[in-house]
Amino acid sequence: xxxxxxxxxxxxxxxxxxxxxxxxxxxxxxxxxxxxxxxxxxxxxxxxxxxxxxxxxxxxxxxxxxxxxxxxxxxxxxxxxxxxxxxxxxx
Length: 91
Description:
Elements: H1 23-26, E1 44-49, H2 55-62, E2 67-70, E3 80-82, E4 88-89
Parallel strand pairs: 1-2
Antiparallel strand pairs: 1-3, 3-4
């Protein structure tokens, strides 16, 4: 038939129009505020307030990725910790 063509030249072989990079792949580094004392964000980790302290959380704290803050968080409790100088602060 003249209307149907099995030779479609507008679509390249190997091209997938649905192969769009996800937001995770294009996202920048996670936000970390600057420490108020040493003025850097290299050593900043989040403070985690949790009722359940699992082995995974303890391992992350040993590696310096997080700081465990306890089981209850008050309104004015700090949510960031600087491993460089030991300062804890709100954002």
